[in-house]
Amino acid sequence: MTRQKMPGISKQCGYAHAEVTREKCYSKIILKIATLGRCFAEKKMADVIDSEVFQAFTTYATLVVLKMLLMAPLTAYFRITRKAFVNLEDSSAHGKTPEDQKKLLRLDPEVERVRRCHQNDLENIIPFVILGLLYTLTGPDLSTALLHFRAFAGSRFCYTVAYLCTLPQPSRGLSWIVGMVTTFSMIYRILSTVLLL
Amino acid sequence: MTRQKMPGISKQCGYAHAEVTREKCYSKIILKIATLGRCFAEKKMADVIDSEVFQAFTTYATLVVLKMLLMAPLTAYFRITRKAFVNLEDSSAHGKTPEDQKKLLRLDPEVERVRRCHQNDLENIIPFVILGLLYTLTGPDLSTALLHFRAFAGSRFCYTVAYLCTLPQPSRGLSWIVGMVTTFSMIYRILSTVLLL
Amino acid sequence: MTRQKMPGISKQCGYAHAEVTREKCYSKIILKIATLGRCFAEKKMADVIDSEVFQAFTTYATLVVLKMLLMAPLTAYFRITRKAFVNLEDSSAHGKTPEDQKKLLRLDPEVERVRRCHQNDLENIIPFVILGLLYTLTGPDLSTALLHFRAFAGSRFCYTVAYLCTLPQPSRGLSWIVGMVTTFSMIYRILSTVLLL
């Protein structure tokens, strides 16, 4: 091989003196490219957002939040059919005289039942979504993550059915516990992966 | 052109045998660099976080959450001015004798109105923020996203004014429906983009 | 140096005509690599997810949400020990005759106290987590971020102790105010960094 002095290019490669062969210099370029390649292959938290686990999280989080949102129209439906309102401006369309309208400001057991179910959703589904996002960013296996998401979504749908249809007790309690266990399992995974106090 | 055997460099380029010209080998390097460049140009979900849509989401999410947070001091203000408390330790500073203090543990219609508005914020604004984040990550157009965010923020401010000032009914109901429609539109976009069950 | 015509490779480098030396062409490759390197060094919002600040956020967000979730079993515990239920299907296991069961559908001051504390958690901890995530993505210093997260987490634990143990008033109010100030400080940082209306 021919040896050549390359003062310009050797400086860019970071060699202090020009006494290098062309080949040695180009090898270094290739090594740099290889390093860049490895950089891409490296698993980064930000890449998790593009992963299938994140897509699964997005799907299930949207479904359970949608379920929670539907409790509001359901409450409105029960309020109107049972004629049980809480604001005078709401009942004004459903009673003729002011006394009639005041009578409609009452508590209805069915309405209260839907509202308690809605409140329980707020207390459980929102922590699930927050923790589910952080759990997804720890980069779990797709199968493990799907197991968590499906168990939680299933438990919440069972809970809602059990609450609204007044099923006998172990049913509502058990479905609530399944949701809690799933959430606590995600908390365990998050804190055992990332703990910076 | 001169042909040269390059055993070292040709291996790094991935050629099995050394019978390649220098030029062929370097062409491959350049192609690799081009691939890296394309990698950067590729639209990735994680890049969405740096986008203008994400900045718009951040702004509107912060504003509506700020609006929700301000309901708490407002409740406190009404509790103190109307002298309607819920805990004995809160009313102890506002009554002299223990009987006076017990009388202050009462429900006030204005306080309950603010609290219901706060509860409705919890039920609507938090789902909006969660779904808005997932919606932003699906990479919508800036104009479409801004339309959603502005419609929702506007609807919540109207809702609050309608509730606290006791405006006649279609106003509060309509502003609530605008917020719900916006949220459902975002759910539609999320589930039609990403659906992994 | 030897001058050589390189029609193939010079085109890939983007030179219109082949009248370039090999060295000039390879210098351009190295410059491209350097540009890629700078691309990596550039601070992007998406990289913040991999930062220590994000790890700190994940830890504290998980801890405060865990604290909030634990209020639900605590409510259940008080409901069972104080025998104060809200659904007939819940009290059916604790009373023999239907009249006994109906008597158990009552409000208990201790249960209501735990529930109000849970509600206050919902109203404060969830906004903190949402705003904390957006705050983290603005890329604050680790020490400043830790100060915010620790102050908020501390204030919520004090609030819970003050509420459940019925400590005299300034304690609960002050811990609530510390949490609010922390949250407002994060809102200020978010809106002063990112504001796209």
From TrEMBL, chains A, B, C:
Keyword check for Plastid: no
Q: What is this protein called?
A: Microsomal glutathione S-transferase 1
| Highest taxon in the source lineage | Eukaryota
What is the reaction catalyzed? RX + glutathione = an S-substituted glutathione + a halide anion + H(+)
Q: Which organism is it from?
A: Coilia grayii
- Signal peptide: which range, if any? none
Topology of the protein relative to the lipid bilayer: Multi-pass membrane protein
In the Enzyme Commission scheme, what number(s) does this protein have?
2.5.1.18
